[in-house]
Structures are given as structure tokens and as C-alpha cells.
């Protein structure tokens, strides 16, 4: 996966987030303040534009993710902006200046991104946050890579990871929120999918779509 692949990933995220903006807003209306769709649409649109207009253009996958993260921090407020922004920046930093990224390196970068989210937000799995989608996706990705020959196609592996993220997001429905705005609702947070877990599933789905293109 090269620089163009990572630009295409961010463009695909911007596309699916814009497409699902109202759905994310509806999820956040139920257990938050109804801004998650607008927040992420604003952030990823800005990231797509920043990548297109950067001079010089991003030279490496790491540059792409770092610029994306910086833009998210600048443009998205609330809880999700700093969390997603820092995660993308950490992924960029972890990839360093490598011109090509292997699936194993991508898994390590996602792992580093998750670690930052958990350091900043202190959420464990089961707290009904984006962590509930990201953590199982990374576990699935890492396990699937162990079974994939080095020259094998990584498309199906990313598909498995996206599915794990979607299942993780769906599995937040019966959970009680213990972090973020939804936690103020206590037991009334039960019965709704967490918006951040849903958007994380979209981000992983966009990765799989980009690999399949
Ligand atoms: P805000 O809640 O400030 O309006 P958003 O609506 O954009 O921000 O994002 C809400 C999402 O952020 C939640 O659905 C949840 O997934 C995620 N989130 C909130 N707090 C935390 C946390 N401490 N750790 C991980 N994720 C969190
Ligand atoms: Mg919100
Ligand atoms: Mg808000």
C-alpha cells in the first residue's frame, strides 16, 4: 500500500461519512448531542481537501495520515476530534517515512492508534465507545495476517477486519455507556448503537473498499 492508496482511503472515508452523516447524527441524537455526523463530515472533508491542496503533496503514507490527523484535530471538536485526530497522527508517526506499507505494518500502526485513543480517553472495551469497534478489528486483522502467505492478497483480510468492526459496533447496543457524553444517561444509554463505534466501522469499511478497488 503506497501513498496513493492512503490518499484514496481518506477520500473513501470522506465519501462514506458524508453518505452516512444523517445516520451518525441520528445515533448521536439518541445518546449524545446529535453532532457526530456533522463533526466527522466536516473533519474528513477538510482532510480530503488538505491532502489535495498540500504543497508539496504528501510524499509517504505516514505524511497522509499525519496531515489527516492534524486536520481532524483542527476541524472536529468534541470528544471524537482529538481522539480520531491523535489516532491518525500516531498511525502516521508509526509508519515513519516508509514509501510502502505492508498489511502487518498497517496492523501495527492501527494498534498504536488504538493505544493513543485509550491513553487519552481511558476507555476499555465494553465501555460503549469507538474502542469497541477498533479493538476487535485489529485483533481480527492481526490473526488473519498470521494465516495469510506473505505474497497473498490482503483484500479478504481487510474485509474480515471491517466485518469485525461492524460487529463490534453492533455489539455496543446492549451496553451501558461508561465514557463520554452517553455515560451521563446511565442506563438510558442501553439499547442504542454507539455513534463513534459506528463511525469506526465505516472507517474500516472504507479501508476494505479501497483495497478492493
Ligand atoms: P461529543 O460527544 O463531544 O459530541 P462526538 O459526538 O463527535 O463528540 O463523538 C462521540 C463519540 O466519541 C462517542 O460515540 C464515542 O464513541 C467516542 N468517545 C467519547 N468519549 C470517549 C472516550 N473517553 N474514549 C473513547 N471514545 C470516546
Ligand atoms: Mg456528539
Ligand atoms: Mg458535541
Structure, explained:
One of its GO terms (cellular component) is cytosol. GO terms for molecular function: glycerone kinase activity. Its EC number is 2.7.1.-. Residues 4-209 form the DhaL domain. The chain has one domain: Serine Threonine Protein Phosphatase 5, Tetratricopeptide repeat, CATH 1.25.40.340. Helix content is 69%, strand content 0%. The protein has helices at 3-19, 21-31, 36-53, 61-75, 80-95, 103-121, 131-146, 155-170, 195-212. Helix 2 runs antiparallel to helix 9 (195-212) and helix 8 runs antiparallel to helix 9 (195-212). It is globular, with a radius of gyration of 16 Å. Bound molecules: adenosine-5'-diphosphate and magnesium ion (MG) (2 copies).
Highlighted features:
glycerone kinase activity, binds adenosine-5'-diphosphate, kinase, Dihydroxyacetone kinase-like protein, 213 residues, mainly alpha, globular, Serine Threonine Protein Phosphatase 5, Tetratricopeptide repeat, binds magnesium ion
Average pLDDT figure: 96
Number of strands: 0
Radius of gyration: 16 Å
Helix content: 55-70%
At the third CATH level, what is the topology name? Serine Threonine Protein Phosphatase 5, Tetratricopeptide repeat
What characteristic shape results from the CA principal axes? Answer: globular
List the helices and strands in order.
HHHHHHHHH
CATH level 1 name: Mainly Alpha
CATH H-level superfamily: DhaL domain
Give the count of helical stretches. 9
Low-confidence residue ranges: none
What's the CATH architecture? Alpha Horseshoe
Percent of residues in β-strands: under 5%
Structural class: mainly alpha
Count of distinct structural domains:
1
* Largest pleated sheet: none
Q: What bound compounds does this protein have? A: adenosine-5'-diphosphate, magnesium ion
Amino acid at each position: 500500500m503506497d501513498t496513493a492508496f492512503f490518499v484514496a482511503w481518506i477520500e473513501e472515508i470522506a465519501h462514506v461519512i458524508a453518505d452516512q452523516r444523517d445516520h451518525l447524527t441520528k445515533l448521536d441524537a439518541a445518546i449524545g448531542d446529535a453532532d457526530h455526523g456533522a463533526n466527522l463530515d466536516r473533519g474528513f472533508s477538510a482532510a480530503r481537501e488538505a491532502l489535495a491542496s498540500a504543497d508539496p503533496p504528501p510524499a509517504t503514507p505516514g505524511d497522509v495520515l499525519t496531515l489527516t490527523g492534524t486536520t481532524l484535530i483542527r476541524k472536529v471538536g468534541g470528544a471524537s476530534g482529538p481522539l480520531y485526530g491523535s489516532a491518525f497522527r500516531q498511525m502516521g508517526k508509526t509508519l515513519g517515512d516508509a514509501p510502502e506499507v505492508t498489511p502487518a505494518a498497517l496492523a501495527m500502526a492501527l494498534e498504536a492508534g488504538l493505544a493513543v485513543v485509550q491513553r487519552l480517553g481511558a476507555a476499555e472495551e465494553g465501555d460503549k465507545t469507538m474502542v469497541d469497534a477498533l479493538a476487535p478489528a485489529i485483533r481480527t486483522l492481526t490473526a488473519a495476517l498470521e494465516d495469510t502467505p506473505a505474497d497473498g492478497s490482503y483484500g479478504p483480510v481487510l474485509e474480515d477486519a471491517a466485518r469485525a468492526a461492524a460487529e463490534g459496533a453492533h455489539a455496543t447496543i446492549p451496553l451501558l455507556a461508561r465514557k463520554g457524553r452517553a455515560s451521563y444517561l446511565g442506563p438510558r444509554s442501553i439499547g442504542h448503537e454507539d455513534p463513534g463505534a459506528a463511525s469506526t466501522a465505516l472507517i474500516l469499511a472504507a479501508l476494505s473498499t479501497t483495497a478492493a478497488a
